[in-house]
Design a protein that fits this description.
Elements (H helix, E strand, L loop, with lengths): L1 E5 L8 E5 L2 E10 L5 E7 L2 H9 L1 H18 L7 H13 L2 H8 L6 H6 L4 H5 L3 H4 L9 H15 L6 H10 L21 H14 L18 H18 L5 H20 L3 H8 L10 E4 L5 E4 L7 H12 L6 E6 L4 E6 L4 E9 L8 E8 L2 H15 L14 H15 L1
Antiparallel strand pairs: 1-2, 2-3, 3-4, 5-6, 5-7, 7-8, 8-9, 9-10
Helix pairs in contact: 1-3, 2-3, 9-10, 9-12, 10-11, 11-12, 13-14
Length: 418
Amino acid sequence: MRDIVFTRGSGWIPSVIREDGELKLMLGAGADANHDPRTFTFPIGEAHRAVIQEDLARHLLLWSAVLPLCDDAGTRGRLDEDAAVALLDPVLLAAPADVDAFFRHVRWDRSRLVAHGADIGLLDSGQVCAAMRGATETADAKRAQEHHANRARARRGVVLGPLDTAILRYTGQYLHGATVPKRTPDAVAPALLPEVMRVVATAEHACAGMRIGRDPRRGNRATDKRDWALMETTVEAALRRAYPGLADDAVRTVGFLMCSEAAARSRNTPVEDDEEAADPTGGARRNALTFTDDKGAEKKWLPDGPRTAAAEFWEFVGDHSAADNEVFTIEDEELGEGVQLHFYADSLARITTLRAGGGGSDPEYLVEYRLVDGIGCYRTLVSAFVRGGCAALDQHGPWIRDVAEFERARRRRDAQRR
């Protein structure tokens, strides 16, 4: 039988209960293997209950000291009740100076105290009791998040000025640097917003006309890492020239904003429009093409269809490409020629039929290889082939016929990359 003896209005602060006639402190902390909250209890005395009920600051300090023990219990372990009980007298019944000394030698959850109004300066100086004089039952999670973010930056040696802080708030990355940035002008103090907007305008001007294309090798919504890196480098260089006093965190968040917006535009662009941007000359041709992958998938493209051959091929790649499926072929059966893309090796082969088979003899092919430098290069070669066949690829050499020579070239290229 469990009865609530004392509880505070704010949900997560531990409650005093009576279970089978025994006083206990009950708190929720952590989660089990199914991500459901875990509940822990441990015995307390009547004197402890009285302090918990009358003194919010001591109640919160005890909670802060117990939470690391709950973390130790993990998803299925038991709370170390002896260790929890050992916290009661030093936290609840000792003199303030002794409590301060005790907290210098035990683990405690700082963010919990900050969320409930702790004076951060006094916490930093080790005066935990004095820091909790203004404690509140209601938690301010945002205050705790900001404090955690500031401490993380301090550990990296980062010092933010007012403009740096405003820029991070504008992009929504002040609290969480891994958050996808967005434009939140309402989060910036009005006095600083015009200056923030000038910084953003400088970045926009620096990357005007640049785009981040799609990379179907990693799926239909994946974007080109090289395009991203180029835009990021361009924006950050421009900002460092124009605003040499900006912190690296501020510079990076604006670069991240520009790149993420460009990537989103690319993902949301219809395939034909995206292909036209990459290849403004179009992909018109007269013969049908067959697309295949290394797993037996096949797709026909007909010249009277509504979509370009290149756009339809890259969609086929995006649908089928995977870590174990990195070879794709485009074949023009009527002309007896094709190209084979080897994503695992960053290379492409063009294949031309020299003599058709017949009368029991095998056909004879000319196979030539080329190293490929990124998805942009693949797009150029594919577009050239679907427009004009293997002959159109002559200008995109050099082409290597000897396999051994090509392998040596590939190994040299890979060694330079390392």
